[in-house]
């Protein structure tokens, strides 16, 4: 039986963990469930996660255009 995994932290920490899961298990989609009742706090949490993703993609794009590989 599989159990859900809880991931908590800053936007950057959550994004990094999701990226690790994607790379390890080739997961293409994640279900993000935020047990936050307040809609403003829920939106802020999603915004932080989206900002972390956008920043990571920006860094990757800059590295690829400069010829740096990981």
How would the global form be characterised? Answer: flat
Extended strand count: 0
Largest sheet: none
Query: Number of helical runs?
Result: 2
Mean pLDDT: 86
Using only C-alpha atoms, the radius of gyration works out to 14 Å
End-to-end C-alpha gap: 36 Å
The string of secondary-structure elements, in order, is: HH
Roughly what percent helix? 55-70%
Low-confidence segments, ≥5 residues, pLDDT <50?
none
Q: What is the oligomeric state here?
A: single chain
Question: How would you explain this protein's 3D organization?
Answer:
- The chain is an all-alpha fold and 70 residues long.
- Helix content is 61%, strand content 0%.
- The protein has helices at 11-25, 39-66.
- It is flat.
- The chain starts with 10 loop residues before the first helix and ends with a helix.
- The mean pLDDT is 86.
What is the secondary structure topology, with strand pairs?
Layout: H1 11-25, H2 39-66
Helix pairs in contact: 1-2
Features of the shown structure:
70 residues, mainly alpha, 0% strand, flat
Summarize the structure.
Helix content is 61%, strand content 0%.
């Amino acid at each position: 039986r599989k159990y859900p995994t809880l991931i908590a932290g800053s936007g950057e920490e959550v994004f990094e963990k999701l990226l690790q899961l994607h790379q390890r298990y080739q997961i293409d989609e994640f279900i993000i469930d935020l047990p936050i009742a307040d809609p403003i706090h829920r939106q802020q949490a999603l915004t932080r996660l989206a900002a972390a993703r956008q920043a990571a993609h920006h860094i990757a794009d800059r590295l690829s255009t400069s010829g740096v590989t990981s």
